[in-house]
Amino acid sequence: MAQCQERIDRLVTTVNTLEQTIEQLQSAHNDLEQYGRGCGMRFYGIPENAYENTDELVTEIPKKLGVQVHETDIYASHSVGKKLANRSRPLIVRFLRYKTR
């Protein structure tokens, strides 16, 4: 019986250690996700038929505001979500540098 209790105690210690490790990893993962989103932007209300190449569109919108953004500043861009007949999907853009955003 004593051996069983020792084994249970070791297993409880192992589980507690693993739970702490999981919490630390989840926190680190969340921090990385938040940092990665710092270079991104979402655009809403742009009709999908207004563009074929999202990178070109992303360079045109800032021009209207007097800001220069080049296609070489863009890491990736695309529409997100399901296509709906009555609403355009948001456009998400990830820039190479935070300052470009």
Strand segment count? 3
Q: What overall geometry do the principal axes of the alpha carbons give?
A: elongated
- Largest pleated sheet: 3 strands, antiparallel
Whole-number count of domains: 2
Output the number of helix runs.
Answer: 2
Radius of gyration: 24 Å
Mean pLDDT: 83
Q: What is the percent of helical residues?
A: 40-55%
Q: Assembly state here?
A: single chain
The secondary structure category is alpha+beta
Strand order of the largest sheet: 1-3-2
Low-confidence stretches: none
Strand residues, percent: 5-15%
What order do the SSEs take from the amino end to the carboxyl end, as H and E?
Answer: HEHEE
Measured between the Cα atoms of the first and last residue, the distance is: 64 Å
Would you kindly provide a brief summary of this structure?
This protein has 101 residues and is α+β, with helices and mostly antiparallel strands. The protein folds into two domains: 1-37; 40-101.
Could you explain the architecture of this structure?
Residues 1-35 form a coiled coil. Keywords: Coiled coil. There is one protein chain. 47% of the residues lie in helices and 15% in strands. The chain has 101 residues and is an alpha+beta fold. It folds into two domains: 1-37; 40-101. The protein has a three-stranded antiparallel beta sheet with strand order 1-3-2, with helices on one face. The model has no long low-confidence stretch (mean pLDDT 83).
